[in-house]
Design goal:
eight-stranded mixed β-sheet; binds flavin-adenine dinucleotide; Methane Monooxygenase Hydroxylase, Chain G, domain 1; about 575 residues; Flavocytochrome C3, Chain A, domain 1; alpha/beta
């Protein structure tokens, strides 16, 4: 089988992905041109909707704060790998964009005087690291949900056209210009060809590479993988963040907001162990440091009952604050663990959470294809799939929501402004040939391998060797295993060979993306012989600025990955030792 009919569309701008980044880009672009949003999920099911803790902006509503401090914290948090020009823009524009969201109707929590309330979060400080500051603007522990709903409503009002449950299969690039995308309608199995002057990818992250993750099942990095297969680079893929507090074994996230409200971490001896690792910020140190500290405690036999988890303790907090400001996570813990967090501590372990790396872009969200930052005409990316880079080697909490709204909006604006000067690009003659071949191959294969088995093997292996602690030996083992899994993937066979709602086919396509991205992550991690941010090499435990204060780029060339480097933009803050 294989879909035969192709339905054609023409829009000035096509945005793939309807999370926070895609929706705000669509909203902005739709003020100036005809926009379509293509999304494999209904917009309100996008992962942005699960963001709990908040969005960082130096509003200074409860105590003095300014965007320069936010900028410093972000750069220090990134272990000095973030591009400082991009961070500067982000921290400045965060303030305006939070007020814009408020004016669109986002129901933030309020102070008694009616201002947007703010709470503490990991790595966010006043006066360049002196003490924690209240910077995270939040709507209980449903901030992302509120952002998504607010933006979706505005897009409907603006008459943006949505193609819901359409799966991106290919981005058409020819002679240095993007001319559109090919998507597959999940309900009918038909192929749709979108001819566009500009395309923006906002397809989110890929935490599903790992077995313990906070990420939804759909976070398989499709946009990143498609561009990688098309020969475009991916940047800083060795940096994947583990959030310290996932529910034990399940990976479901307990927001850092819980520690922002006063929750603490305890080991099996009942010690507040973060005191030893980060004397100033303690439980509000950045995520990379806390995740490593938890692993270390566990290795030293100081997990709870000697096992591989620690406690997040909220029992000393005012129960009313817990119920009111953290209602969803309280509910999760009661439902999934049968534990009441008001009375008992919560068993937690680090969980794969956030991709710092992704599609390289400049501050206008234009996709750039080399170390000289050459933009590819008509192609944009924003949100977690992109790498601007504002998070460098480690992202601070609340900064992804800032990133998606600031750079999503910048992307929507710049694509709309630029496209009036552009002619319609020519579509390649064989625009859907590649996609048809991929789908036919998967549907017709009579191999003996199953998608679920390969995926489980991949996730367990990544967790074992490519997670918080890494070594050359482990990474080499991982690489060999990935090559083997890629080989097995060529022999997968599907039981459902039909066209309609073929979720088995969708999962097979998603697994192909995960295998590509895991491969790039492992090769980049093997190459970087230093420790920086979320990338910790036990065999190279120190940061090495002389050799490695550089972004990595990975390209697919004739079936092999070729790595190269790109300079880091440093403006105001010179790299320093990172103490908290
Ligand atoms: C549990 C959790 C809590 C978090 N809490 C916070 C927080 O408090 N603060 C913070 O700053 N960050 C937080 N983050 C991180 C942050 O939420 C995400 O990084 C951010 O929301 C990503 O937004 P996005 O728009 O880039 O992608 P997403 O919201 O993930 O949306 C991706 C979109 O791409 C579409 N898509 C993907 N593949 C395809 C395809 N093949 N074809 C068509 N469409 C496709 C999907 O349908 C979806 O609409 C949290 C993350 C998680 C997982």
């Amino acid at each position: 089988m294989g879909p035969r009919s192709v339905i054609r569309h023409r829009y000035d701008a096509v945005i793939v992905g309807a999370g926070g980044a895609g929706l705000i880009a669509a909203l902005e672009a739709s003020k100036r041109c005809r926009v379509a949003v293509v999304s494999k999920l209904h917009p309100s099911r996008s992962h942005t909707g699960t963001a709990q803790g908040g969005i960082g902006a130096a509003l200074g509503n409860l105590e003095t704060d300014n965007w320069q401090w936010h900028m410093f914290d972000t750069i220090k948090g990134s272990d000095y790998l973030a591009d400082q020009d991009a961070v500067e823009l982000m921290c400045q524009e965060a303030i305006e964009v939070v007020y814009d969201l408020e004016h669109m109707g986002l129901p933030f929590n309020r102070t008694p005087e009616g201002k947007i309330d703010q709470r503490r979060f990991g790595g966010h400080t006043k006066e360049f690291g002196k003490a924690p500051v209240r910077r995270s603007c939040y709507a209980a522990d449903r901030t992302g949900h509120m952002i998504l709903q607010t933006l979706y409503q505005q897009c409907i009002k603006q008459e943006v056209t949505f193609f819901d449950e359409f799966y991106l299969l290919d981005v058409l690039i020819q002679d240095g210009r993007c001319s559109g995308v090919v998507a597959w309608c999940i309900a009918t199995g038909e192929l749709h060809l979108f001819h566009a002057k500009a395309v923006l990818l906002a397809t989110g992250g890929f935490g599903r590479m790992f077995s313990v993750t906070s990420n939804a099942h759909t976070l398989t990095g499709d946009g990143c993988a498609v561009l990688f297969q098309r020969g475009l680079p991916l940047e800083d893929m060795e940096f994947f963040q583990f959030h310290p507090t996932g529910i034990y074994k399940l990976g479901i996230l307990i927001t850092e907001g819980a520690r922002g409200e006063g929750g603490i971490l305890l080991n099996g001896k009942g010690e507040r162990f973060m005191q030893r690792y980060a004397p100033t910020l303690m439980d509000l140190a950045p995520r990379d440091m806390i995740s490593r500290a938890i692993y270390r405690e566990i290795r030293e036999g100081k997990g709870i009952e000697g096992k591989d988890y620690v406690y997040l303790d909220l029992t000393q907090l005012d129960p009313e604050i817990v119920e009111k400001k953290l209602p969803d996570i309280t509910d999760f813990v009661r439902t999934y663990l049968g534990v009441d967090p008001i009375k008992n501590p919560i068993p937690v372990q680090p969980t794969a959470h956030y991709a710092m790396g992704g599609i390289p872009t400049n501050v206008h969200a234009q996709v750039v294809i080399d170390e000289r930052q050459t933009p590819l005409s008509g192609l944009y990316a924003a949100g977690e799939c992109a790498c601007v880079s504002v998070h460098g080697a480690n992202r601070l909490g609340t900064n992804s929501l800032v990133d998606i709204v600031v750079f999503g909006r910048r992307g929507g604006r710049s694509m709309a402004e630029r496209l009036h000067a552009l002619d319609w690009p020519t579509l390649p003659e064989d625009a859907v040939a590649r996609t048809q071949e991929t789908i036919s191959h998967l549907c017709e294969s009579r191999g003996e391998e199953s998608v679920a088995r390969i995926r489980t093997d991949l996730q367990q292996m990544m967790m074992l060797h490519v997670s918080v602690y890494r070594t050359e030996r482990g990474l080499k083992e991982a690489l060999a295993a990935i090559l083997d899994l890629r080989d097995r993937y060529r022999r997968v066979s599907l039981q459902d060979r039909g066209l309609r709602f073929n979720t088995e086919l969708q999962e097979a396509l998603e697994l192909g993306c995960l295998l590509d991205l895991a491969w790039v992550t492992t090769i980049a991690a093997l190459s970087r012989t230093e420790s920086r941010g979320a990338h910790f090499r036990e065999d190279y435990p120190a940061r090495d600025d002389v050799r490695w204060l550089k972004h990595s780029l990975a390209n697919l060339r004739e079936g092999e990955i070729v790595l190269s480097e790109k300079p880091v933009t440093i403006s105001r803050f010179q790299p320093q030792e990172r103490k908290y």
